[in-house]
């Protein structure tokens, strides 16, 4: 099968909403592909605010609909289907259309907190096991996830590392106007495995050492019960500001002294990359994918090292010029789209249907 220079591509995922890292990455990837190719996006649900993309909502989460949806996809004669999350992983495994399976990762079962979480974990992993067997290529977004995929699923097929892209602003905007200057920033979901509670505790230790003129700002949505725990911790620690969802996070990056995360698991950690593009040092633990994405900052082995790094970046001007150029080089949308099309042409164009 010889691929045309302009391909007909189906991009499919579970949902497409602002505020979710995977969703935003898929939207930006699809938009970049659409510069050179004909792209149609399929999702179970999607925000009405998504512009410049052909998005169709389909009930792929209903098992009885999967085969019909797969048949409809095949009838549209796409050159390939690029899936990013269940249930479209399963739908693609029922298609004749060449399937490229992106893997943004699944947090370990140890991060689940209630039976419904365990059920979802089982469902997503089962879908990955089944769909990977028929995929042309599995595309983990980090080396860490590639190793986990092979180990967890006993997968021996072809994998290619393809990090998710970030549509960086041309210029980092002016800092947000806050009634304080020095602050640690965290951006992301507020869930237990992200360990925002640990970040608050470590910040409180750093504040005791530095003084009252430092703050912690957290941005992102969270589970109601966990958010209540965080608010109580924040009140005890002092100078902690839990902002919730913020539409434009770049002014917060611009004003931060340091970005920090205590997350126990990340497939790529998009905010870490964004913070470095904004010229900010990052403090994280030396775990999961963080060694791959932290180019400017500190990878801490324990809480003491983490606290010491916060103190350092809050009290001294960071050395060096940052990692903005490196982040663009590694994670720009054009790079992801070009690398993806090269992988596709090699896997489909050279090996045939």
What does this protein look like?
The strands form 2 sheets. Strands 3-2-1-4-5-6 form a 6-stranded parallel sheet. It contains 13 helices and 12 strands. The relative contact order is 0.13. With 353 residues, the protein is α/β, with parallel strands linked by helices. Strand 7, helix 6 and strand 8 form a beta-alpha-beta unit. The protein folds into 2 domains: 177 residues, Glycogen Phosphorylase B (Rossmann fold, 3-Layer(aba) Sandwich); 148 residues, Glycogen Phosphorylase B (Rossmann fold), CATH 3.40.50.2000. One of its GO terms (molecular function) is glycosyltransferase activity.
Question: Tags for this entry?
Answer:
12 strands; glycosyltransferase; 353 residues; 13 helices; Rossmann fold; single chain; alpha/beta; transferase; 17% strand; six-stranded parallel sheet
What is the topology?
Layout: E1 8-16, H1 21-33, E2 38-46, E3 54-57, H2 66-75, E4 80-83, H3 88-93, E5 99-103, H4 115-132, E6 137-140, H5 143-153, E7 182-187, H6 196-210, E8 214-219, H7 224-237, E9 240-242, H8 250-255, E10 258-260, H9 270-277, E11 282-285, H10 290-293, E12 297-300, H11 303-315, H12 324-331, H13 333-350
Parallel strand pairs: 1-2, 1-4, 2-3, 4-5, 5-6, 7-8, 7-10, 8-9, 10-11, 11-12
Keywords: Glycosyltransferase, Transferase
Domain Glycosyltransferase subfamily 4-like N-terminal: 20-167
GO molecular function, one term: glycosyltransferase activity
What is the CATH architecture assignment of the largest domain? 3-Layer(aba) Sandwich
The CATH superfamily name of the largest domain is: Glycogen Phosphorylase B
Mean pLDDT: 94
Number of helices: 13
Structural class by secondary-structure content: alpha/beta
> What share of residues are in beta strands?
15-25%
The profile of the biggest β sheet is: 6 strands, parallel
Placed side by side, the strands forming the largest sheet appear as 3-2-1-4-5-6
| Alpha carbon gyration radius | 21 Å
Number of domains: 2
CATH topology of the largest domain: Rossmann fold
The helix content is: 40-55%
Straight-line N-to-C gap: 6 Å
Gross morphology is globular
CATH class of the largest domain reads Alpha Beta
Give the low-confidence spans.
Answer: none
Pfam families: Glyco_trans_1_4 (PF13692), Glyco_transf_4 (PF13439)
EC number: 2.4.1.-
Keywords: Glycosyltransferase, Transferase
Domain Glycosyltransferase subfamily 4-like N-terminal: 20-167
């Amino acid at each position: 099968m010889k691929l045309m220079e302009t391909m007909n591509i189906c991009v499919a995922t579970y949902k497409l909403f602002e505020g979710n890292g995977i969703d935003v990455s898929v939207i930006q990837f699809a938009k970049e592909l659409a510069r050179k190719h004909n792209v149609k996006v399929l999702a179970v649900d999607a925000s009405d605010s998504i512009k410049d993309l052909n998005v169709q909502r389909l009930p792929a989460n209903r098992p009885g609909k999967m085969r019909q949806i797969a048949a409809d996809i095949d009838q549209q004669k796409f050159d390939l289907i690029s899936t990013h999350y269940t249930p479209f992983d399963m739908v693609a495994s029922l298609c004749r259309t060449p399937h490229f399976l992106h893997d943004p990762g699944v947090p370990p079962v140890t991060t689940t907190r209630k039976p419904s979480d365990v059920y979802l974990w089982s469902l997503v992993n089962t879908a990955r096991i089944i769909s990977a067997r028929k995929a042309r290529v599995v595309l983990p977004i980090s080396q860490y996830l590639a190793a986990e995929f092979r180990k967890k699923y006993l997968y021996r097929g072809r994998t290619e590392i393809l990090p998710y892209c970030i549509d960086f602003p041309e210029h980092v905007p002016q800092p947000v106007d806050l009634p304080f200057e020095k602050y640690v920033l965290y951006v992301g979901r507020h869930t237990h495995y992200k360990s925002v509670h640990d970040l608050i505790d470590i910040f409180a230790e750093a504040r005791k050492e530095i003084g009252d003129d430092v703050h912690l700002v957290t941005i992102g949505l969270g589970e109601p019960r966990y958010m209540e725990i965080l608010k109580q911790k924040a009140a005890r620690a002092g100078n902690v500001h839990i902002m919730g969802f913020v539409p434009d996070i770049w002014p917060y990056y611009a004003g931060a002294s340091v970005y920090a995360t205590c997350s126990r698991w990340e497939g790529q950690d998009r905010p870490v990359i964004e913070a470095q593009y904004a010229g900010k040092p990052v403090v994280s633990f030396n775990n999961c994918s963080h060694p791959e994405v932290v180019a400017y900052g500190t990878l801490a082995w324990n809480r003491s090292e983490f606290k010491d790094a916060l103190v350092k970046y809050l009290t001294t001007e960071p050395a060096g010029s940052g990692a903005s150029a490196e982040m663009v080089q590694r994670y720009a949308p054009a790079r992801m789209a070009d690398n993806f099309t090269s992988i596709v042409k090699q896997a489909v164009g050279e090996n045939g249907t």
